[in-house]
Amino acid sequence: MAQIYAFANQKGGVGKTTLSVHLAILAHQLGFNTLLVDLDQQGSATFLVTGDGSRHHTLDGTVLDIWDPLKRAPLQESPIFGFDFLQASIGLDRVDRDFNAALAALKRLHLLESGSGPYDVVVIDCPPAPNTRQLAPLFVANVHALPVTPDALGTQGLKSMVSLSLGDVLPINEDLKVRILINRLKANSTKNKAIADNILKSLPEFTFPYILFDREDVRSALRIGKPYWEVCRDQAQKTAWYQLFLALLESTPIPDIGTEVPEPENADAILDTQFSARGGPAAPGGGSPAAPAGGNMPTAGGDPEVAEPEDGEVTHDTYIPDDDDGEEASAQIGEDDGEETSGEADSQDDILDQLSREAEGGTE
Ligand SMILES: Nc1ncnc2c1ncn2[C@@H]1O[C@H](COP(=O)(O)OP(=O)(O)OP(=O)(O)O)[C@@H](O)[C@H]1O
Ligand SMILES: [Mg+2]
């Protein structure tokens, strides 16, 4: 059975598509049989993996076909990245009225096979609306990958998305793990940093300490068919991007390989090329970034395993989560992003208590 990762957040523009494509790229590079499923009628993921911005302007040969048990899933291979995908359709919203039909359709994803056998990893890019195509994937997924931007708007819905997954979905889909991915941190924003720290401190069980910065060249990397860790020029972010997706793949053990995720064959080459091209140092340890040590989740607030900058490297973009005990926590999850962000952050216990209360009262 495939491991299914659903990238879902009702907030738009947080990086669902960008990060789901990156996860599919890494899974494919690591040798997993990988399928990307574009459930957004905007077709952004379809565009990124084909280079064709109008590819989704059709009802035929799209992911809609998995709603029909008599049809074969119209699997295609990305000419850019090499993994398989089910493309979007502008007509996808027609399936939103029937939740049970969506569940039945998406359950098929666990059983799909390519020419080379069953898929190991299925990545679903969900639309930015609290509709059937955002909710149903959570009921079939192993991992709810929840990208969030560390600003007021980005975090407003975070708590409700986490409690949706833990409160409403988990009692039914007991396999589900929630993994929060902090993306688009603006390096010069102290408020962004305070909110990111607060998310890490409030929800450490669910949050990776690899923070992705808002960088212009993220967009251009995918446009030239490369994951960001292959083009990023600063060591700390290169490592953070790579480690985040590696950790995400590790968060659900893949049956064929257990918990051991192999080193990518070309990681040394990727990193060495980047640095020799810029006359910089080799990657830390002379090779590819190591997988996070110790269990499925890294510990928040601890060593983010982001390399220290060498002399002469960019330092203003190097972000290390604060390691204090939070006495100055200045931004609450979901709070309004007023100019002054004061007040005590919810303690983790408060949040988890609240989540478990919501879980107990969760709807079927
Ligand atoms: N870390 C980043 N740095 C800079 N730009 C980014 C980063 N992550 C995503 N982006 C850009 O932000 C925009 C929104 O990203 P993306 O489309 O992945 O978000 P989304 O959550 O899928 O949006 P939607 O809700 O519309 O589907 C895109 O132009 C993307 O290239
Ligand atoms: Mg998107």
Automatic annotation (TrEMBL):
Region (Disordered): 276-364
Acidic residues bias locations: 320-352
InterPro entries xref list: AAA_dom (IPR025669), DNA_Partitioning_ATPase (IPR050678), P-loop_NTPase (IPR027417)
Cleaved signal peptide residues: none
Biased composition (Basic and acidic residues): 355-364
Domain AAA: 3-163
Domain of life: Bacteria
Name of this protein: Chromosome (Plasmid) partitioning protein ParA / Sporulation initiation inhibitor protein Soj
Organism of derivation: Acidithiobacillus caldus (strain ATCC 51756 / DSM 8584 / KU)
Phylogenetic placement of the source organism: Bacteria, Pseudomonadati, Pseudomonadota, Acidithiobacillia, Acidithiobacillales
